[in-house]
């Protein structure tokens, strides 16, 4: 009896929280004609014409460019963040370096409204000609990803027994060798987690994409909003829905496949941060 | 034997941290410096590279700007309300659904899905969902209840945004609480059951106190994320009628990009910067002291 109630609560919660996604998914398969008569979730005459429109390049809208930009900047922002965080995490966890200064500063960074750095970064990027480039946006996404990557990696290294390092030091290994040959391979699960998590965060970022790009490096989160700016007539809701599904699908699939790892990393970042 | 063997690795460690520190200096240290200099300068897009230091006029302008206070109040209220709602709902779901999810962890994936989608896209999705003429929610409200309601009108926009944010981020609180709930040692629960504790008492006197630290952390994280909200609010209502739905992030963004008021935007950034770090370091110190006391 109580279990039936639990299932009902689960169904309501799942439906309410995923409601916009479900509506958008269903709308993306509706023709313009069906849309005007059928606002419900069920699609009577599913069509792919909205997706065909989305994937048609026009001089104003180019979905392939937005997707390629998102892949490029998210990859750069994720790999660079982990590459910077891993050696630093090792120095913090084992060398007790900056445990009271660098670590809390970067952890706090996760909680700071990043808009406070946005304006000087905009001006700096103007001087460096990094505005509207993938490199520029990727560098900013590195900052966004650094705090969580560092926390995950510091925790992972702390969990490894210190005898590993000591034994290797006895054998004459340098710290660099220990990091590359022992620590990094043992931390692979944590590294993978921070990569996945970083990729999803970077893919979903909007504020800096909006501020720092205009045409060449526009990511999909910003590009999707271009489809709403109607060209004559009203917004084509079917097409707009299709573009949102396309933009939301990669992180959703990653999340569905890797949800166990993501659960762990979210709590790591939260509890220790 | 201590000195050489200890000194050598520490310099190696320093070298390992250098790239990160350099990166932070360039991409955060330098911008912070620019913020400080520009906040006390007279600057426009024409004189961007040669700011003239003039004093605290920008700060006075922000301090006396009623939209700044309106935005601060919006951010604070939004952060507080969404944090409380998300944590209350998340806590209820974590405890009530735990027997289901313990056995079928894939249910978790369904509840987590909203966390994977960009808040900006969720905001755009709600533009359709709540649309007066084509959106399903107003349609069913009308056909089933004969009610029409302007979700994004000035009177209700704030509450609509609170619900939008809460529905997307309750899964985050739920996830934290689920983990904390699972981490309660089974012996403790069994012992209290042996002592004949009623389920309600067990929940109130045993389980919730054990989860208290997680609840505090979740409230804090959700408050901060709500306070600095930008994406979903920006795409749904922008700053709203008369700036009624402008968060501080939107205030700064619009001061810079829409009004070209660089000085004001930068001064507001510096204020937000100082307050954020003061609060965060205060909390860190508090947490450290509590840990020390234990």
The tally of beta strands of chain A, per DSSP, is: 0
Low-pLDDT stretches of chain B are: 1-7
β-sheet strand percentage of chain A: under 5%
Helix-strand category of chain A: mainly alpha
CATH homologous superfamily descriptor of chain B: MetI-like
Overall number of strands of chain B: 2
How many structural domains can be distinguished in the coordinates of chain B?
Answer: 1
Order of helices and strands of chain B: HEEHHHHHHHHHHHH
**How many strands, what sense, and barrel or not for the largest sheet of chain B?**
2 strands, antiparallel
Q: Rounded to an integer, what's the Rg of chain B over CA atoms?
A: 25 Å
How would a textbook summarize the main sheet of chain A? none
How far is the N terminus from the C terminus of chain B? Answer: 36 Å
Largest sheet of chain B, order of strands side by side? 1-2
| CATH T-level fold name of chain B | MetI-like fold
Give the termini separation of chain A. 40 Å
N to C succession of SSEs of chain A: HHHHHHHHHHHHHH
Give the CATH level 1 class of chain A.
Mainly Alpha
Query: Shape of chain A from CA axes?
Result: globular
Strand content of chain B: under 5%
Description:
The complex is a heterodimer of chains A (273) and B (294). Chain A has a single domain, classed as MetI-like (MetI-like fold). In chain A, helix 7 (134-158) packs antiparallel against helix 10 (188-204) and helix 12 (220-226) packs antiparallel against helix 13. Chain A contains 14 helices and no strands. Chain A has helices at residues 2-28, 32-37, 49-54, 63-95, 102-109, 115-128, 134-158, 163-170, 175-186, 188-204, 207-212, 220-226, 237-257, 259-272. With 294 residues, chain B is an all-alpha fold. Chain B has one domain: MetI-like (MetI-like fold), CATH 1.10.3720. Chain B contains 13 helices and two strands; from the N terminus they run H-E-E-H-H-H-H-H-H-H-H-H-H-H-H. Chain B has helices at residues 2-39, 57-63, 66-96, 98-103, 106-116, 119-129, 136-145, 157-183, 186-194, 199-227, 231-236, 248-257, 262-293, and strands at 41-42, 52-53. In chain B, strands 1-2 form a two-stranded antiparallel ribbon. Mean pLDDT of chain B is 87; it is low at 1-7. Chains A and B meet through helix 1, helix 4, helix 5, helix 6 and helix 7 of A and helix 1, helix 5, helix 6, helix 7 and helix 8 of B.
């Amino acid at each position: 009896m109580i279990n039936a109630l639990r299932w009902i609560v689960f169904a309501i919660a799942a439906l309410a929280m995923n409601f916009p996604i479900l509506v958008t998914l269903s709308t993306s398969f509706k023709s313009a004609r069906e849309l005007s008569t059928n606002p419900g979730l069920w699609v009577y005459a599913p069509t792919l014409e909205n997706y065909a429109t989305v994937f048609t390049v026009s001089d104003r809208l180019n979905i392939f460019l937005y997707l390629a930009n998102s892949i490029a900047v998210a990859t750069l922002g994720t790999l660079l963040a982990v590459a910077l965080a891993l050696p630093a995490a090792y120095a913090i966890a084992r060398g007790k370096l900056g445990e009271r200064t660098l670590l809390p500063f970067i952890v706090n960074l996760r909680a700071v409204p990043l808009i406070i750095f946005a304006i000087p970064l905009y001006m700096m990027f103007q001087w460096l000609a990094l505005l509207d480039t993938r490199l520029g946006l990727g560098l900013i996404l590195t900052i966004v990803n650094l705090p969580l990557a560092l926390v995950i990696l510091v925790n992972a290294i702390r969990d490894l027994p210190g005898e590993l390092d000591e034994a290797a030091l006895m054998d004459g290994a340098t710290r660099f060798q220990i990091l590359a040959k022992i620590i990094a391979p043992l931390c692979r699960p944590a590294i993978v987690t921070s990569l996945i998590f970083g990729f999803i965060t970077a893919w979903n970022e909007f504020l800096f994409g909006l501020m720092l790009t205009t045409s060449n490096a526009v990511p999909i989160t910003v590009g999707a909003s271009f489809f709403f700016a109607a060209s004559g007539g009203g917004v084509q809701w079917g097409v707009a829905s299709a573009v949102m599904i396309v933009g939301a699908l990669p992180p959703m699939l990653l999340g569905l496949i890797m949800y166990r790892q993501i659960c762990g990393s979210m709590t790591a970042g939260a509890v220790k941060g | 034997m201590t000195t050489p063997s200890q000194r050598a690795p520490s310099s190696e460690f320093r070298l390992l941290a250098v790239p990160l520190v350099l990166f932070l200096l360039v991409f955060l240290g330098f911008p912070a410096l620019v913020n400080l200099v520009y906040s006390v300068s007279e600057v426009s897009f024409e004189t961007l590279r040669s700011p003239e230091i003039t004093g605290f006029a920008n700060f006075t302008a922000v301090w006396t700007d009623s939209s700044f206070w309106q935005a601060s109040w919006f951010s604070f209220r939004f952060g507080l309300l969404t944090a409380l709602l998300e944590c209350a709902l998340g806590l209820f779901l974590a405890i009530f659904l735990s027997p289901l999810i313990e056995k079928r962890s894939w249910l978790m994936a369904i509840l987590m899905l909203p966390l994977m989608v960009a808040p900006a896209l969720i905001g755009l999705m709600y533009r359709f969902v709540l649309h007066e003429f084509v959106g399903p929610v107003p349609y069913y409200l009308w056909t089933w209840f004969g009610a029409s309601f302007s979700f994004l009108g000035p009177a209700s926009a704030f509450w609509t945004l609170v619900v939008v944010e809460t529905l997307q981020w309750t899964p985050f609180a739920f996830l934290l609480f689920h983990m904390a709930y699972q981490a309660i040692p089974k012996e403790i629960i069994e012992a209290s059951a042996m002592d004949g504790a009623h389920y309600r008492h067990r929940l109130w006197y045993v389980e919730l106190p054990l989860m208290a630290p997680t609840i505090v952390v979740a409230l804090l994280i959700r408050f901060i994320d709500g306070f600095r909200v930008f994406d979903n609010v920006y795409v749904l209502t922008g700053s709203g009628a008369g700036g009624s739905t402008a968060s501080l992030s939107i205030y700064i963004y619009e001061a810079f990009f829409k009004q070209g008021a660089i000085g004001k935007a930068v001064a507001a950034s510096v204020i937000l910067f100082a307050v954020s770090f003061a609060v965060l370091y205060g909390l860190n110190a508090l947490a450290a002291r509590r840990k020390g006391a234990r």
